[in-house]
Amino acid sequence: MSTNVVDVTKKFGDFQALYDINLAIEDGEFIAILGPSGCGKTTLLRMLAGFESPTSGTIEINNTAVADASFSVPPEKRDVSMVFQGFALWPHMTVADHIKFPLRYDQFAAYELKQNMSQRVGDVLEIINLQDKGEAYPHELSGGQKQRVSLGRAIATEPQLLLMDEPLSALDAELRIEMRREIQRLHQITGATIVYVTHDQGEALAMADRIVVMNKGRIEQVGTPEDIFYRPETEFVATFVSKANIFRGWWEGDAFHVADSSVVLANVGTTDALKASGIYALRPDQIELTDVALNDLTAEVLTRQFQGKEYHYSLNLNGQTILVQRPFTDVYEVGERVGLRAVAG
Ligand SMILES: Nc1ncnc2c1ncn2[C@@H]1O[C@H](COP(=O)(O)OP(=O)(O)OP(=O)(O)O)[C@@H](O)[C@H]1O
Protein backbone atom coordinates (compact mmCIF):
# COMPACT_ATOMS: atom_id res chain seq x y z
CA MET A 1 0.00 0.00 0.00
CA SER A 2 1.58 3.30 -1.00
CA THR A 3 1.45 6.14 1.49
CA ASN A 4 2.16 9.79 0.87
CA VAL A 5 2.73 12.46 3.44
CA VAL A 6 2.48 15.84 1.73
CA ASP A 7 3.55 19.13 3.37
CA VAL A 8 2.33 17.98 6.77
CA THR A 9 2.65 20.09 9.91
CA LYS A 10 1.29 19.36 13.37
CA LYS A 11 0.71 21.76 16.23
CA PHE A 12 -0.39 20.91 19.77
CA GLY A 13 -1.62 24.29 21.00
CA ASP A 14 1.34 26.66 20.61
CA PHE A 15 3.86 23.83 20.29
CA GLN A 16 4.82 22.75 16.79
CA ALA A 17 5.64 19.01 16.80
CA LEU A 18 6.07 18.55 13.02
CA TYR A 19 7.32 20.91 10.29
CA ASP A 20 7.01 20.45 6.50
CA ILE A 21 6.96 16.65 6.44
CA ASN A 22 7.08 15.16 2.94
CA LEU A 23 7.50 11.42 2.55
CA ALA A 24 6.50 8.92 -0.12
CA ILE A 25 6.39 5.31 1.07
CA GLU A 26 6.18 2.63 -1.58
CA ASP A 27 4.12 -0.53 -1.44
CA GLY A 28 5.97 -3.27 0.47
CA GLU A 29 8.74 -1.01 1.76
CA PHE A 30 10.20 -1.28 5.25
CA ILE A 31 10.67 2.28 6.46
CA ALA A 32 12.30 3.12 9.77
CA ILE A 33 11.62 6.50 11.33
CA LEU A 34 14.67 7.19 13.44
CA GLY A 35 15.29 10.01 15.87
CA PRO A 36 15.78 10.98 19.50
CA SER A 37 13.02 11.24 22.08
CA GLY A 38 10.58 14.04 21.34
CA CYS A 39 11.53 14.53 17.67
CA GLY A 40 7.96 13.78 16.50
CA LYS A 41 8.25 10.22 15.18
CA THR A 42 5.32 8.84 17.20
CA THR A 43 3.18 11.82 16.19
CA LEU A 44 3.90 11.06 12.52
CA LEU A 45 3.12 7.36 13.01
CA ARG A 46 -0.13 8.14 14.87
CA MET A 47 -1.11 10.35 11.95
CA LEU A 48 -0.65 7.45 9.51
CA ALA A 49 -2.82 5.32 11.83
CA GLY A 50 -5.52 7.97 12.11
CA PHE A 51 -5.11 8.75 15.83
CA GLU A 52 -3.95 12.31 15.05
CA SER A 53 -4.78 14.59 12.16
CA PRO A 54 -2.50 17.13 10.49
CA THR A 55 -2.72 20.84 11.28
CA SER A 56 -1.95 21.40 7.60
CA GLY A 57 -0.99 19.19 4.67
CA THR A 58 -2.41 15.87 3.49
CA ILE A 59 -1.98 12.15 4.16
CA GLU A 60 -2.75 9.89 1.21
CA ILE A 61 -3.08 6.13 1.23
CA ASN A 62 -3.16 4.44 -2.18
CA ASN A 63 -3.47 7.86 -3.81
CA THR A 64 -6.61 8.74 -1.84
CA ALA A 65 -6.55 11.48 0.79
CA VAL A 66 -7.32 10.00 4.22
CA ALA A 67 -6.60 13.12 6.27
CA ASP A 68 -6.02 16.84 6.01
CA ALA A 69 -6.76 19.82 8.25
CA SER A 70 -10.52 19.45 7.74
CA PHE A 71 -11.17 15.70 7.90
CA SER A 72 -9.60 12.41 8.97
CA VAL A 73 -10.61 8.83 8.22
CA PRO A 74 -10.75 7.11 11.67
CA PRO A 75 -8.26 4.28 12.46
CA GLU A 76 -10.81 1.47 12.13
CA LYS A 77 -11.65 2.62 8.61
CA ARG A 78 -8.01 2.36 7.43
CA ASP A 79 -6.48 -0.97 6.46
CA VAL A 80 -3.72 -0.41 8.97
CA SER A 81 -2.47 -2.34 12.03
CA MET A 82 -0.37 -1.02 14.86
CA VAL A 83 2.10 -2.74 17.20
CA PHE A 84 2.86 -0.92 20.42
CA GLN A 85 5.85 -0.62 22.70
CA GLY A 86 4.22 -2.21 25.75
CA PHE A 87 2.60 -5.16 23.88
CA ALA A 88 -0.95 -4.02 24.85
CA LEU A 89 -2.21 -7.59 25.42
CA TRP A 90 -5.49 -8.37 27.19
CA PRO A 91 -4.80 -10.36 30.42
CA HIS A 92 -8.04 -12.39 30.25
CA MET A 93 -7.54 -13.55 26.64
CA THR A 94 -5.48 -16.48 25.37
CA VAL A 95 -2.92 -16.17 22.60
CA ALA A 96 -5.38 -17.68 20.08
CA ASP A 97 -8.10 -15.22 21.22
CA HIS A 98 -5.76 -12.29 20.58
CA ILE A 99 -5.31 -13.45 16.99
CA LYS A 100 -9.05 -14.15 16.53
CA PHE A 101 -10.04 -10.71 17.79
CA PRO A 102 -9.17 -8.68 14.67
CA LEU A 103 -10.39 -11.53 12.45
CA ARG A 104 -13.82 -11.17 14.10
CA TYR A 105 -14.06 -7.41 14.41
CA ASP A 106 -11.81 -5.82 11.80
CA GLN A 107 -13.83 -4.72 8.78
CA PHE A 108 -10.81 -5.27 6.53
CA ALA A 109 -10.51 -8.97 7.42
CA ALA A 110 -11.08 -10.85 4.16
CA TYR A 111 -14.18 -13.09 4.03
CA GLU A 112 -12.01 -16.21 3.46
CA LEU A 113 -9.96 -15.46 6.56
CA LYS A 114 -13.13 -15.03 8.66
CA GLN A 115 -14.62 -18.26 7.25
CA ASN A 116 -11.46 -20.25 7.98
CA MET A 117 -10.66 -18.61 11.27
CA SER A 118 -9.10 -21.63 13.03
CA GLN A 119 -6.93 -22.28 10.00
CA ARG A 120 -5.77 -18.64 9.99
CA VAL A 121 -5.11 -18.72 13.76
CA GLY A 122 -2.97 -21.86 13.23
CA ASP A 123 -1.09 -20.22 10.37
CA VAL A 124 -0.38 -17.07 12.39
CA LEU A 125 0.75 -19.13 15.42
CA GLU A 126 3.18 -20.87 13.10
CA ILE A 127 4.46 -17.60 11.64
CA ILE A 128 5.11 -16.20 15.11
CA ASN A 129 6.51 -19.54 16.28
CA LEU A 130 4.02 -20.05 19.12
CA GLN A 131 2.30 -23.22 17.87
CA ASP A 132 2.22 -24.69 21.39
CA LYS A 133 1.03 -21.55 23.15
CA GLY A 134 -2.41 -20.99 21.61
CA GLU A 135 -4.18 -21.61 24.92
CA ALA A 136 -1.66 -19.72 27.08
CA TYR A 137 -2.53 -16.41 28.78
CA PRO A 138 -0.20 -13.38 28.65
CA HIS A 139 1.08 -13.88 32.23
CA GLU A 140 2.32 -17.34 31.18
CA LEU A 141 4.54 -15.89 28.42
CA SER A 142 8.04 -14.38 28.32
CA GLY A 143 8.56 -10.81 27.08
CA GLY A 144 9.64 -12.00 23.63
CA GLN A 145 6.62 -14.32 23.36
CA LYS A 146 4.29 -11.47 24.37
CA GLN A 147 5.73 -9.27 21.65
CA ARG A 148 5.30 -12.11 19.16
CA VAL A 149 1.60 -12.29 20.15
CA SER A 150 1.18 -8.58 19.50
CA LEU A 151 2.89 -9.02 16.11
CA GLY A 152 0.59 -12.00 15.38
CA ARG A 153 -2.50 -9.97 16.28
CA ALA A 154 -1.30 -7.18 14.01
CA ILE A 155 -0.78 -9.41 10.96
CA ALA A 156 -3.84 -11.67 11.46
CA THR A 157 -6.02 -9.83 8.94
CA GLU A 158 -3.16 -9.43 6.45
CA PRO A 159 -3.17 -5.61 6.70
CA GLN A 160 -1.36 -3.77 3.95
CA LEU A 161 0.24 -1.25 6.28
CA LEU A 162 1.87 -2.27 9.57
CA LEU A 163 2.85 0.50 11.95
CA MET A 164 5.27 -0.33 14.75
CA ASP A 165 6.06 2.06 17.59
CA GLU A 166 9.33 1.04 19.29
CA PRO A 167 8.07 -2.57 19.46
CA LEU A 168 11.29 -3.94 20.98
CA SER A 169 12.07 -1.32 23.58
CA ALA A 170 10.56 -3.32 26.48
CA LEU A 171 12.83 -6.31 25.75
CA ASP A 172 16.38 -6.97 26.93
CA ALA A 173 19.32 -6.37 24.57
CA GLU A 174 19.81 -9.96 23.43
CA LEU A 175 16.14 -10.56 22.75
CA ARG A 176 15.92 -7.30 20.80
CA ILE A 177 18.57 -8.58 18.38
CA GLU A 178 16.72 -11.89 17.97
CA MET A 179 13.38 -10.13 17.41
CA ARG A 180 14.94 -7.99 14.63
CA ARG A 181 15.32 -11.20 12.64
CA GLU A 182 11.71 -12.19 13.40
CA ILE A 183 10.40 -8.83 12.23
CA GLN A 184 12.46 -9.07 9.03
CA ARG A 185 11.03 -12.54 8.44
CA LEU A 186 7.52 -11.24 9.08
CA HIS A 187 8.11 -8.55 6.49
CA GLN A 188 9.29 -11.14 3.95
CA ILE A 189 6.31 -13.44 4.62
CA THR A 190 3.58 -10.80 4.65
CA GLY A 191 4.98 -8.39 2.05
CA ALA A 192 3.25 -5.64 4.05
CA THR A 193 4.48 -2.08 4.05
CA ILE A 194 6.08 -1.48 7.44
CA VAL A 195 6.67 1.86 9.12
CA TYR A 196 8.81 1.28 12.16
CA VAL A 197 9.54 3.97 14.74
CA THR A 198 12.73 3.69 16.76
CA HIS A 199 15.38 5.75 18.51
CA ASP A 200 17.88 2.89 18.09
CA GLN A 201 20.05 3.39 15.00
CA GLY A 202 21.17 -0.26 15.13
CA GLU A 203 17.57 -1.42 14.63
CA ALA A 204 16.95 1.00 11.80
CA LEU A 205 20.21 0.16 10.01
CA ALA A 206 19.64 -3.58 10.40
CA MET A 207 16.07 -3.87 9.13
CA ALA A 208 14.94 -0.95 7.02
CA ASP A 209 14.93 -0.54 3.24
CA ARG A 210 15.02 3.20 3.85
CA ILE A 211 15.56 5.27 6.97
CA VAL A 212 13.90 8.61 7.68
CA VAL A 213 16.04 10.49 10.20
CA MET A 214 14.08 13.07 12.21
CA ASN A 215 15.20 15.80 14.55
CA LYS A 216 13.12 18.48 16.29
CA GLY A 217 10.02 17.88 14.19
CA ARG A 218 11.79 17.90 10.83
CA ILE A 219 13.11 15.28 8.45
CA GLU A 220 16.91 15.59 8.28
CA GLN A 221 17.60 12.92 5.64
CA VAL A 222 15.90 10.00 3.90
CA GLY A 223 17.97 7.21 2.41
CA THR A 224 19.09 3.60 2.44
CA PRO A 225 20.90 2.47 5.59
CA GLU A 226 24.18 2.66 3.63
CA ASP A 227 23.43 6.24 2.48
CA ILE A 228 22.55 7.37 5.96
CA PHE A 229 25.56 5.71 7.56
CA TYR A 230 28.25 6.43 4.98
CA ARG A 231 26.93 9.62 3.39
CA PRO A 232 25.27 11.75 6.09
CA GLU A 233 24.10 15.10 4.78
CA THR A 234 23.66 16.93 8.06
CA GLU A 235 25.71 17.21 11.22
CA PHE A 236 22.84 15.68 13.18
CA VAL A 237 22.68 12.56 10.97
CA ALA A 238 26.48 12.17 11.10
CA THR A 239 26.58 12.30 14.89
CA PHE A 240 23.29 10.55 15.73
CA VAL A 241 23.57 7.64 13.31
CA SER A 242 27.26 6.97 12.73
CA LYS A 243 28.62 8.66 15.89
CA ALA A 244 30.96 10.75 13.73
CA ASN A 245 33.52 13.14 15.19
CA ILE A 246 32.92 16.65 13.88
CA PHE A 247 35.78 19.00 13.03
CA ARG A 248 35.10 22.71 12.42
CA GLY A 249 36.97 24.78 9.90
CA TRP A 250 36.65 25.54 6.19
CA TRP A 251 36.89 23.70 2.88
CA GLU A 252 39.05 24.66 -0.08
CA GLY A 253 38.13 22.18 -2.79
CA ASP A 254 38.81 18.80 -1.24
CA ALA A 255 41.13 20.12 1.45
CA PHE A 256 39.73 20.91 4.88
CA HIS A 257 41.49 23.47 7.05
CA VAL A 258 40.91 22.66 10.71
CA ALA A 259 39.97 25.82 12.62
CA ASP A 260 42.59 27.34 14.96
CA SER A 261 45.37 25.16 13.59
CA SER A 262 47.57 24.71 10.55
CA VAL A 263 46.25 21.18 10.01
CA VAL A 264 44.81 20.35 6.60
CA LEU A 265 42.83 17.14 6.11
CA ALA A 266 42.07 15.41 2.82
CA ASN A 267 38.46 14.57 2.01
CA VAL A 268 37.75 10.92 2.79
CA GLY A 269 34.03 10.90 2.05
CA THR A 270 32.41 14.09 3.36
CA THR A 271 29.25 14.85 1.35
CA ASP A 272 28.80 18.13 -0.49
CA ALA A 273 25.95 19.00 1.88
CA LEU A 274 28.27 18.72 4.90
CA LYS A 275 31.01 20.57 3.06
CA ALA A 276 28.59 23.44 2.50
CA SER A 277 28.19 23.76 6.26
CA GLY A 278 31.95 23.91 6.88
CA ILE A 279 32.11 20.57 8.65
CA TYR A 280 34.44 17.61 8.40
CA ALA A 281 32.88 14.40 9.74
CA LEU A 282 34.92 11.31 10.59
CA ARG A 283 33.40 8.13 11.96
CA PRO A 284 35.33 6.38 14.78
CA ASP A 285 36.33 3.63 12.34
CA GLN A 286 37.77 6.20 9.88
CA ILE A 287 40.57 7.27 12.17
CA GLU A 288 43.92 5.51 12.26
CA LEU A 289 46.24 6.06 15.21
CA THR A 290 49.92 6.53 14.43
CA ASP A 291 53.18 7.56 15.96
CA VAL A 292 53.01 11.29 16.90
CA ALA A 293 55.83 12.14 14.53
CA LEU A 294 53.83 10.89 11.53
CA ASN A 295 50.86 13.27 11.75
CA ASP A 296 50.17 16.95 12.39
CA LEU A 297 47.01 16.12 14.30
CA THR A 298 47.92 14.71 17.71
CA ALA A 299 45.88 13.85 20.77
CA GLU A 300 46.15 12.18 24.17
CA VAL A 301 44.51 8.84 24.96
CA LEU A 302 41.87 9.43 27.65
CA THR A 303 40.23 5.99 27.89
CA ARG A 304 40.55 2.56 26.27
CA GLN A 305 37.79 -0.06 26.26
CA PHE A 306 38.32 -3.64 25.15
CA GLN A 307 35.45 -4.85 22.90
CA GLY A 308 36.63 -8.25 21.69
CA LYS A 309 37.78 -7.66 18.13
CA GLU A 310 38.48 -3.97 18.71
CA TYR A 311 39.42 -1.27 21.18
CA HIS A 312 37.30 1.83 21.63
CA TYR A 313 39.43 4.84 22.48
CA SER A 314 38.48 8.34 23.57
CA LEU A 315 41.12 10.98 22.92
CA ASN A 316 41.62 14.57 23.95
CA LEU A 317 42.31 16.71 20.90
CA ASN A 318 42.83 20.29 22.14
CA GLY A 319 39.87 19.95 24.51
CA GLN A 320 37.61 18.09 22.03
CA THR A 321 36.81 14.44 22.78
CA ILE A 322 37.40 12.22 19.76
CA LEU A 323 36.09 8.66 19.55
CA VAL A 324 38.13 6.06 17.68
CA GLN A 325 37.69 2.33 17.01
CA ARG A 326 40.79 0.31 16.26
CA PRO A 327 41.42 -3.40 15.74
CA PHE A 328 42.54 -5.30 18.85
CA THR A 329 46.09 -5.31 17.51
CA ASP A 330 46.38 -1.48 17.89
CA VAL A 331 47.16 -1.06 21.57
CA TYR A 332 47.84 2.39 23.03
CA GLU A 333 48.08 3.31 26.69
CA VAL A 334 46.01 5.88 28.56
CA GLY A 335 48.05 9.10 28.73
CA GLU A 336 50.00 8.28 25.55
CA ARG A 337 50.13 10.88 22.74
CA VAL A 338 49.16 9.58 19.33
CA GLY A 339 48.88 10.90 15.78
CA LEU A 340 45.50 10.86 14.00
CA ARG A 341 45.08 10.02 10.33
CA ALA A 342 41.79 10.11 8.41
CA VAL A 343 41.12 7.07 6.24
CA ALA A 344 38.48 6.55 3.61
CA GLY A 345 35.72 4.06 4.36
N1 LIG B 1 -1.11 15.28 22.58
C1 LIG B 1 -0.06 16.09 22.73
N2 LIG B 1 -0.19 17.31 23.30
C2 LIG B 1 0.87 18.14 23.44
N3 LIG B 1 2.13 17.85 23.03
C3 LIG B 1 2.31 16.66 22.47
C4 LIG B 1 1.25 15.71 22.28
N4 LIG B 1 1.75 14.61 21.69
C5 LIG B 1 3.07 14.85 21.51
N5 LIG B 1 3.41 16.07 21.97
C6 LIG B 1 4.74 16.69 21.92
O1 LIG B 1 5.21 16.61 20.58
C7 LIG B 1 6.60 16.29 20.56
C8 LIG B 1 6.82 15.04 19.74
O2 LIG B 1 6.28 13.93 20.43
P1 LIG B 1 6.40 12.45 19.88
O3 LIG B 1 5.72 11.55 20.86
O4 LIG B 1 5.94 12.41 18.48
O5 LIG B 1 7.97 12.24 19.94
P2 LIG B 1 8.81 10.93 19.71
O6 LIG B 1 9.88 11.29 18.77
O7 LIG B 1 7.94 9.80 19.36
O8 LIG B 1 9.43 10.72 21.15
P3 LIG B 1 9.52 9.39 22.05
O9 LIG B 1 10.58 8.54 21.42
O10 LIG B 1 9.94 9.95 23.40
O11 LIG B 1 8.17 8.78 22.06
C9 LIG B 1 7.03 16.15 22.02
O12 LIG B 1 7.63 17.34 22.43
C10 LIG B 1 5.74 15.91 22.75
O13 LIG B 1 5.82 16.38 24.08
UniProtKB/TrEMBL annotation:
One of its GO terms (molecular function) is ATP binding. Keywords: ATP-binding, Nucleotide-binding, Translocase, Transport. Signal peptide: none annotated. Transmembrane segments: none annotated. The keyword DNA damage does not apply. It comes from the Bacteria. The keyword Endoplasmic reticulum does not apply. It holds the Pfam family ABC_tran. PROSITE patterns: ABC_TRANSPORTER_1, ABC_TRANSPORTER_2. This is ABC transporter ATP-binding protein. InterPro entries: AAA+_ATPase (IPR003593), ABC_SmlMolc_Importer (IPR050093), ABC_transporter-like_ATP-bd (IPR003439), ABC_transporter-like_CS (IPR017871), Mo/tungstate-bd_C_term_dom (IPR008995), P-loop_NTPase (IPR027417), Transp-assoc_OB_typ2 (IPR013611). Residues 3-241 form the ABC transporter domain.
